[in-house]
Amino acid sequence: MNRKILASENLQIRRFFSLDTRAYEEGALSSKVKELLGLVASLVLRCDDCITYHVIRCVEEGVSDGEFFEAFNVSLVVGGSITIPHLRRAVERLEECRKLSKRDRSARRWGMR
Predict the structure, then answer these.
(1) Cβ-Cβ contacts under 8 Å for 21 (sequence gap 6 or more)
(2) pLDDT (0 to 100) of residue 2
(3) In this structure, what CATH number is given to the domain that contains residue 90?
(4) For residue 87, what is the enclosing H or E element?
């Protein structure tokens, strides 16, 4: 879908997509930490598509289960109990992701980004 959106050649959309991609590149914070931040924000904002994307990226970045669950806890503290259904789906995605091979785990394969 992103290819179709970008094919519109709308400059503002292209710039936003680029900004989003570049925000997760290595910098003062590692890509791993930035993906965890994205996951927490996605849980608090209750965006299941974003949660799926960031779970996949976190697994690709080598996030441990302990790190995931600490991030999940931060999401609960910030977002409150309304985030619990999204937390459940995040854990389901994590379980699915852990079962897949590295090749199949790619965010692109899931239709994300």
Answers:
(1) 113
(2) 86
(3) 1.20.1290.10
(4) helix 84-99
Domain coverage including residue 71: 31-99
* 71, 38 Cβ separation under 8 angstroms: no
Q: Is 92 part of any domain?
A: yes
Whether 45 is covered by a domain: the verdict is: yes
User: So what's the pLDDT on residue 108?
Assistant: 56
Confidence (pTM): 0.85
For residue 47, the surrounding DSSP H or E stretch is none
Q: Say how far apart CA 33 and CA 37 lie, in whole Å.
A: 6
Q: Is residue 7 part of a domain?
A: no
In the chain, how many domains are there?
A: 1
DSSP codes, 14-45: HHHHHHHHHHTSSSSS-HHHHHHHHHHHHHHH
At 100 the pLDDT is: 87
pLDDT in tens, 21-55: 999 999 999 999 999 999 999 999 999 999 999 99
